[in-house]
C-alpha cells in the first residue's frame, strides 16, 4: 500500500490497538528487476516520513526498516544490473540524513537481495534433440521448455541461447535471437546461465513432463540436492476412478 494514501497509517494504528501484536518496523516492495538506486532512495524518504508521522501520533519508535528486494541482475551480457555496493552506500547515507532531519533514531536496515544471490549461482543444462535450419533461421529443440522455465513465455524474459522447447506450444521458447555455433547438432549440451532464481520455484508438470533435478557443483565435486521427478512420482498421485 502506498505510504502516503493513509492506508499504511491506518494499518499501523490497527496493529497498535491489538495487545497481542507488536509493530517492529516497516517493509516495502518496489517491484522486480530494478537496476537503479533511485527508487530505493525515494522509498527511504517516504518510509522515514511515515515513521515520523507514527512517532508524532503514537510516540512509536520503529527499530527496523525493510526495503525489500527487486534487485535487478543481468540475464544476458551487457544488460544492466543493480550495483549492490553503490546501493548500500547511497541508501545508508539517505537513511541517516532523512532520520536526522526527522529527529528519529536510525533503524536497523534490512534488504532482501534474493534473485541477486540465487540467480547467477545456477546453470540450466539442456540436451539438444534436433536442429532445424529454415532460410536465415535456425531452430534448436531441447529436452526442456515451459515445464522447467515458463518465464520467457509468460514475461518475455530473454536468455543467452536460442533453443525451442519440447511442449508443442507457440510460445514455448527458452531464448530467441542469440548466436549459437554453426556446427551445433543433436547430442550437444546447451547451458542457460542465471537459472537459479526462478527455474526451480516456477517449474511445473506441464504436459506431464517431470521436473528436473538440482545438482550442487563445487570445485569439481557434484552432489544431488533434489532428484529428478519420475513418471512414478506423477502416477503415484493418480488414485483412479
Fold topology:
Elements: H1 7-16, E1 25-27, H2 38-58, E2 64-66, H3 84-102, E3 108-110, H4 115-118, E4 124-134, E5 137-142, H5 151-155, E6 163-164, E7 189-192, H6 199-202, E8 214-218, E9 221-226, H7 231-235
Parallel strand pairs: 1-2, 2-3, 5-6
Antiparallel strand pairs: 4-5, 4-7, 8-9
Helix pairs in contact: 1-2, 2-3
Write up this protein.
There is one protein chain. Helix 2 (38-58) links the parallel strand 1 and strand 2. The chain has two domains: 7-116, Alpha-Beta Barrel (TIM Barrel); 122-235, Lyase, Ornithine Decarboxylase, Chain A, domain 1 (Beta Barrel). It has seven helices and nine strands. The mean pLDDT is 87. Helix 2 (38-58) runs parallel beside helix 3. The chain is of the alpha/beta class and 241 residues long.
